[in-house]
Amino acid sequence: MTYDTAIPAATALLTSDRAPAHEAFNGRMYIDGAWTESADQQRFERRSPAHGHVVSSFPEATPADVERAIQAADLALRHGPWSKLKGAERARILLAVADGIKARVDRMSLLESLETGKPLAQARGEVAGCIDLWQYAASLARTTSGDAYDTLGEDMLGIVLRQPIGVVGLITPWNFPLWILSQKLPFALAAGCTCVVKPSELTSSTTVMLMEILEQAGVPAGVVNVVTGKGPSVGQPLAQHDAIDMLSFTGSTRVGSLLGGLASQKLKKVALELGGKNPQIVFPDCDWDAMIDAVVFGVYFNAGECCNSGSRVLVHESIAERFAQAVVERARRVPVGDPLHPECKIGAIVSENQLVEILGNIDKGVAAGARLRLGGKRYEANGLYLEPTVISGVAPDMSIAREEIFGPVLAIIPFSDTQNAIDIANDTAYGLSAAVWSNDINTCLTVARGVDAGTVWVNTFLDGYPELPFGGFKSSGVGRELGKQAVEDYTETKTIQLHIGERKNWWLPRQAA
Q1: Mean residue pLDDT across the chain
Q2: pLDDT at 21
Q3: Which family does the entry's similarity section mention (predicted)?
């Protein structure tokens, strides 16, 4: 790529003179109430993308290990106490898990920061936020209910029950390891299900630490099992195994489509939270300062490695250049560097492969005619760091406007009027989230109703609450997490019909004379 000399310099990289004081975490798998190594005793290491040293190591699970975990979960479902406990008793244990996370926030945050490369302050906020998810799930364990129908006639009573769907396979990604697991596991447990969890091989530490908390909180053996390793040997068997009743996956649309296809062959229930190409739509009458701050936050939070990243901004053509200049000025001052530095806002990219893929997407956008306004290069330093990037003059049909980049790259796309903005926003395969910025409530509601997205923020971005359901349209996924229906998603509905009194005969044979 040829770089324009007029491109403003990105912020200088924050560095630290000392290596992080951390002893490598040696994790193990947890199967049927016991800590264990893999069947062939193989392990793998995870190195910090920011510092290069070994952060953690884990067993490399074999298909035989996955089989043991699934059988343990199945046995615990059929013959264990968990699904038969009162909702209040399950809630008490979930609340104890929340307390266990609270007591370990600092330890879990450090490991998550070192494995993912995200700023330590951000990791601490995410780990602490998981406490609320477990507490909310505990409330649903006590309030999930069925229905009764006393309107079927005097001789019939109808009862609709919700029972645990069964054994659930949970596959979680590397970008928000503990947070996304906490959007799934406590709700499955609240419903009475048993689970097999497969974390990303890049970020397994907090999942294993959470299992320590679950054990201490009193979750019975076999109810939750953790197997560590790569997708082909762990994730694929979860999707295909006959004893897995439901698969819940968060990750890329490509992998989700593959796993969903495998699971559908066995007619399993599937919940998929996948990719996004999420538009923020900016009108001239917006609160300018609030919007600029939210746009920069939305695309550079977690280094853009976020399915909800606001990676494309649709800006009214009358303010497009003013917007580009303002975003560049704000973005070039965002602190980038060592995730343990107290001022860091953008840390390291999770892996070399991910960094190379992001740079390739930037190259494609510039080659297609877009204008690089800021960044676009990796930092010449130890660690996997990428300059905050802004690209303007992006046409809706360019790959950089349509494909998920999963990095700190903002594409600016002009629009002419409200309908044109909605049309551009909907012209991708994705439909996860969106935002609209305007002080005209009519404009906001028109856009919110018209955009294909599971979540639409109005004059804000990336807020979230356990009470509100989360999920996407189109290729962004299937199903919803969180909200009052979250536990119900892990249940099956059963109808019981009770006859009262003497039943009338359908037919009686004629008596012989």
Answers
A1: 95
A2: 66
A3: Belongs to the aldehyde dehydrogenase family.
Sketch the domain layout of the chain as residue ranges: 25-274+476-495, 276-458
Answer yes or no: are the C-beta atoms of 27 and 56 closer than 8 Å.
yes
- Report DSSP state, residue 192: T
Q: Model confidence over 118-127: pLDDT tens digits?
A: 999 999 999 9
CATH of domain 276-458: 3.40.309.10
SS3 content of the chain, % helix, strand, coil (to 5): 40, 20, 40
**Contact yes or no for 50/80 (Cβ under 8 A):** no
Distance between CA 91 and CA 111 in Å, rounded? 28
**Catalytically annotated residue among 112, 126, 273, 305:** 273
Q: Name residues whose C-beta falls within 8 Å of residue 78's C-beta, 6 or more positions apart in sequence.
A: none
User: Read out DSSP for 28-45?
Assistant: -EEETTEEE--TT--EEE
Assign 495 to helix, strand or coil. strand
Q: Does residue 445 sit in helix, strand or coil?
A: helix
Fold equal for 25-274+476-495 and 276-458: no
* Mean pLDDT of the region 469-493: 96
Decide if 329 is catalytic: no
CB atoms within 10 A of CB 146: 15
Integer CA distances (angstroms), 205 to 39, 171, 310, 416, 513, in order: 20, 15, 28, 48, 83
Contact between 213 and 101 under an 8 Å Cβ cutoff? The reply is yes
Beta carbons within 8 Å of 184's beta carbon, 6+ residues apart = 170, 172, 248, 250, 481
Look at the domain 25-274+476-495 and name its fold: Aldehyde Dehydrogenase; Chain A, domain 1 (3.40.605)
| CA atoms lying within 13 Å on the CB side of residue 507 | 2
**Going along 191-296, which residue ranges are E strands?**
194-198, 224-226, 246-250, 269-273, 279-282
DSSP three-state, residue 375: coil
pLDDT tens digits for range 11-32:
789 887 655 667 899 999 999 9
For the record, the structure tokens of 77 come out as: 């479902």
For residue 142, give every residue at least 6 positions away whose Cβ sits within 8 Å of its Cβ, in sequence order, or none: 87, 88, 91
Q: Beta-carbon neighbour count of residue 272 at 10 Å?
A: 24
> What's the CA gap between 497 and 478, in Å, rounded?
32
Q: Encoding tokens for residue 222? A: 């076999």
Give whole-number Cα distances, 347 to 48, 171, 343, 379, in Å.
11, 25, 10, 12
At position 400, the amino acid (one-letter code) is I
Cα–Cα distances in angstroms (integers) from residue 41 to residues 34, 60, 67, 132, 432, in the given order: 16, 8, 16, 37, 40
Contacts of 45 (CB under 8 A, 6+ apart): 54, 56, 57
Q: Which residue has the tokens 């390291």?
A: 348
Residue 383 half-sphere exposure toward CB, CA atoms < 13 A: 27
Q: Are 427 and 404 in contact (CB under 8 A)?
A: no
